[in-house]
Amino acid sequence: MAETKVKHPSVEERKSKGKKYRDKAPVSGHTGWKTASDRPDPVALLEEQNRTREQDLVPVRHGRMLVSPFTFYRGAAKIMAADLKDTPRAGLRVQLCGDAHLSNFGVFASPERTLLFDLNDFDETLPGPFEYDVKRMAASFTIAARNNGYTKEDTRDVTLGAVRSYREAMAEFAQMRTLDIWYARLSEEQLMETLNLAVATQKGKALKKAVEGIEKTAKANVAKAHTRDSLQALSKLGELVDGKYRIVSQPPIVIPARELGESFGMSAAEVEEAVRDQLRSYRATLPDDRRRLLERFEVIDVARKVVGVGSVGTRAFIALLQGRDQQDPLFLQVKEATRSVLEDHLPKSKFKQPGERVVQGQRMMQAASDIFLGWTKGVQDNRYLYWRQLRDMKGSAVVEGMKPLGMNFYADACGWTLARAHARSGDPIAIASYLGKSDKFDRSITDFSERYADQNEKDYQAFADAVRSGRLEAVEGL
After folding, report:
1. Residues 286 and 405 reside in one and the same domain
2. Per-residue model confidence as pLDDT tens digits over 162-209
3. Residue 8 carries which DSSP code?
4. 107 near 393, Cβ under 8 Å?
5. Between β-strands 329-336 and 298-305, what pairing exists: parallel, antiparallel or unpaired?
6. Global confidence as pTM
7. Which of 34, 85, 135, 231 is close enough to 345 for a disulfide, judged by CB 3.0 to 4.6 Å?
């Protein structure tokens, strides 16, 4: 096999490349966005996605999206992917998250047991134009701020802050050595130091009190994340029956395998054997040391478990494993991986297995990834899965409860994090050169976000009308 020749342009050549792309796609060219004349029906796009999903869960997905324009946006990545295909692109490619809205950032434990703040959802990951992720993130802040009742000024400030943080962070990465970028991360200690500094530098009593409130909330969320492990999951999801643990039945959100057989046309024994076959295949995708570690655990029980908003209806399971004894549990999450919504409009993934696409994209973008990330082909044709720990000190911010000041802090962290993820796979020097030092890009993306938020509200209304008319079925409150 012929080796691919890797080019190594100089720093000046990379800067020149970024500046050159300003002619192709001016940084101010993202203003004035409007829908394409041939824009597909957004409800039809959701119906298209629903065809391959678990039909009994599709109404649950609709019910979660129906809560607000913000929850609708979280589940509408396919709609936005169709809209982004016609937007300006400089031609600077990175590994995209593909669904970089603000609720897909959070904290989790590194292999060294340090809490990190990072992106945490990669179902749609794919190489593509860096602008796609920036727009998905920025628009989510505009939509979330409106949903929280912020003023127009506060909403604009939050969105501008997220994009500015991305641009300024990319400028910092452009000055860093290659390995320093790879090792860069936003730890629990760094987050707390930033908040402590913010408290110390506030002069007004009211503002100081507000920042202290943000710090208190952040500390509480971090402390809660430290408790979220497999033992805690066992107390919530497990029950002791005849001296053995098993997963509690909580339909339709959690349905153990012992109750699932008929749904998949398999007996309980066949389901159990399929799970064990899947586990063996999954172990083979892990590095040797992780595989040997996992072999110390045995499968105790498996269940289907509904997760998230956008993922509802795709197949998702949890597996309860046991190590040395009943107080040594390990919960794994098994999620279905489908084609990325971006593959409708961008070059298809080089990975034939969608589960591998997700895992490799996550490893590329995250500062540190779950030691048990792996993938398998499902039992049935055209079904693909990826595996990870269910709870490993994972935590996320309650976006709906954020005040403007708190969301500004959060926007700064998300912008920095997205820039770091892009700098790992893309060319930070070229991207920073393209973005420039002024706020033209920030204002341009903010204008796009405001216009897209307007369209998202129209799409949400069309979705709600489809539910009311009976075109779509929705089950709320789950």
Report:
1. no
2. 999 999 999 999 999 999 999 999 998 888 887 777 666 666 667 667
3. -
4. yes
5. unpaired
6. 0.93
7. 85
